[in-house]
Amino acid sequence: MNLEKMFKMQAELDDRIIREKGLEGQDLLPNTYVALITELGEFANEGRWFKHWSENQEPNRTGYIDCDVCVDQPGRYEAIHEGEILSLPCPKCEDHEEVYVGDRLLEEYVDCLHFFLSIAIKKGWHLYLLKESIEDFQREGFEGGLSEAFLKMQWHLLNSRMFSDEYTKESNFRLAWWLFIAIGIVGFGFTLDQIEKAYIDKNAVNHKRQQEGY
After folding, report:
1. Measured between alpha carbons, how far is 185 from 81 in angstroms, rounded to an integer?
2. Among candidates 110, 122, 100, 92, which has minimal Cα distance to 26?
3. Helix (H) or strand (E) holding 192
4. How far is 77 from 207, CA to CA, in rounded Å?
């Protein structure tokens, strides 16, 4: 996984959003943290491992619709009629199963990755892959299971925002990052190549959305 390349791609996307949305000079870091926490929740929802109340605890690896009409709501799109927001069947893809592509869980994972990179860029924090740590998790598993690893990641992430000391912030962010990578690779079997390709694909989608006034 070429992190240097991904950092460059993310910086270009972030700069474009700031420029085209007129956000120059604004502190967007709090928003970015909220976005990352939100996306982590969406990733967990697709991962399903924690849903002990459900008969289905298998991750959602089904495809998503690659459609420029419905985009975020596969098979549906929103329209405003007489001031009311309506959810309607997508006229382009509702009956075309072949437009389902990709992996929903992996897509949610790389959505999180976008915001991890954005925060690191805004703070000037260096991220790298700690292969020894990943190998330890592969050999020994997560102490307390996947839910415990996810909670620890969230805890370190929040500490990276709430502590006043910059060194402590960066250290906690890097710990959250390593746990995030380990959860993807060890918890769900993603490879580094799969993560990079999915990131590049979603980055292109995000540029397209900006072009179309998302």
Report:
1. 45
2. 122
3. helix 192-211
4. 20
Report the pLDDT value the prediction gives residue 196, as an integer from 0 to 100. Answer: 95
Per-residue pLDDT of 123-156, as tens digits, reads 999 999 988 888 888 888 899 999 999 999 999 9
| pLDDT on residue 80 | 73
Nearest alpha carbon to residue 190 among 104, 66, 65: 104
Give the pLDDT band of residue 70 (cuts 50, 70, 90): low
Task: State the DSSP code for 102.
Answer: S
Residues whose CB is less than 8 angstroms from the CB of residue 61 and which lie 6 or more positions away in sequence, other chains included: 103, 104, 105, 106
For the chain, the distance separating the N- and C-terminal CA atoms, rounded to the nearest angstrom, is 29
Give per-residue burial for 19-36: e unless 16+ CB within 10 Å, then b. Answer: eeeeeeeeebeeebbebb
d(CA 39, CA 24): 24
CB distance 60 to 48 below 8 Å? yes
What H or E segment, with its residue span, contains residue 96? Answer: none
Task: Output the pTM of the full model.
Answer: 0.82
pLDDT tens track for 39-62: 999 999 999 999 999 999 999 887
The tokens for 60 are: 């959602």
Cα separation of 12 and 30, whole Å?
A: 20
